[in-house]
Amino acid sequence: MKNLIESIVKPLVENPEEVKIEAVEEDHQITYKLTVHKDDIGKVIGKRGRVAKAIRTVVYAHANTTENKKVVLEITE
């Protein structure tokens, strides 16, 4: 899942080396915490959150076919 998120986010940002993904696994949920450089946060979120919503849609669709747990994607700077 981390590879999927990286492959979507890295082409969008100007500082791809600053993209970090941390997975926190709980009983019924996996939370992926996406951290990007503060100058790139707007590019990842997009106008009115459209880019972030599109990223989450792809990640959640992939998770439905591969994971038995709920997947959450958090975006931070």
Automatic annotation (TrEMBL):
Belongs to the KhpA RNA-binding protein family. The keyword RNA-binding applies. This is RNA-binding protein KhpA. Keywords: Cell shape, Cell wall biogenesis/degradation, Chaperone, Cytoplasm, RNA-binding. It comes from Pallidibacillus thermolactis. It holds the Pfam family KH_KhpA-B. A probable RNA chaperone. Forms a complex with KhpB which binds to cellular RNA and controls its expression. Plays a role in peptidoglycan (PG) homeostasis and cell length regulation. The keyword Chaperone applies. Its main location: cytoplasm.
